[in-house]
């Protein structure tokens, strides 16, 4: 995702995330590092996706920016997701957990 996820863009974010969940491998890394803003509507989409996929997918978040990281932490969602500052760290952790690193 690029830009912002707010009330105006949350539906598109949800559409993209659901499409990914339906076609993706069991492990998904959601890269939010290009977001300048993550609003409540975006948090709700992430929480819904987590609930929909909790028995079928492992989800990891790349928060990237301090603003997105703060929103995830302040909402309490950092307890629901493994979060990483960058994509490389997330991919290394996925590989380690799946015996590839």
Secondary-structure element order, N to C = EHEEHEHEH
Radius of gyration: 13 Å
Number of strands: 5
Low-confidence stretches: none
Mean pLDDT: 91
Number of helices: 4
Question: Which geometry do the CA atoms define?
Answer: globular
Q: Bin the strand percentage.
A: 15-25%
**Termini distance?**
27 Å
Give the helix/strand class.
alpha/beta
Largest sheet: 3 strands, parallel
How is the largest sheet built, in terms of strand order? 2-4-5
The helix content, as a percent range, equals 40-55%
Give a description of the structure:
This protein starts with a strand and ends with a helix. It has helices at 10-23, 40-53, 66-75, 87-97; strands at 3-5, 27-31, 35-38, 58-62, 82-84. Helix 1 packs parallel to helix 2 (40-53). The strands form two sheets. It has a three-stranded parallel sheet, with helices on one face. A two-stranded parallel sheet has the order 1-3. With 101 residues, the protein is an alpha/beta fold.
Helix-strand layout with pairing:
Layout: E1 3-5, H1 10-23, E2 27-31, E3 35-38, H2 40-53, E4 58-62, H3 66-75, E5 82-84, H4 87-97
Parallel strand pairs: 1-3, 2-4, 4-5
Domain STAS: 1-94
Pfam family, one: STAS
Protein name: STAS domain-containing protein
What would a concise description of this structure say?
This protein is an alpha/beta fold and 101 residues long. The chain has helices at 10-23, 40-53, 66-75, 87-97; strands at 3-5, 27-31, 35-38, 58-62, 82-84. Helix 3 (66-75) links the parallel strand 4 and strand 5.
């Amino acid at each position: 995702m690029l830009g912002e996820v707010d009330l105006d863009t949350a539906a598109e974010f949800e559409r993209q995330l659901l499409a990914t969940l339906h076609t993706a491998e069991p492990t998904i890394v959601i890269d939010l590092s290009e977001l300048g803003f993550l609003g409540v509507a975006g948090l709700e989409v992430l929480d819904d996706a987590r609930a929909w996929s909790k028995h079928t997918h492992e989800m990891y978040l790349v928060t990237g920016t301090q603003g997105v990281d703060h929103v995830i932490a302040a909402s309490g969602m950092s307890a629901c997701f493994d979060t990483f500052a960058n994509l490389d760290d997330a991919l290394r952790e996925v590989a380690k957990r799946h015996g590839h690193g």
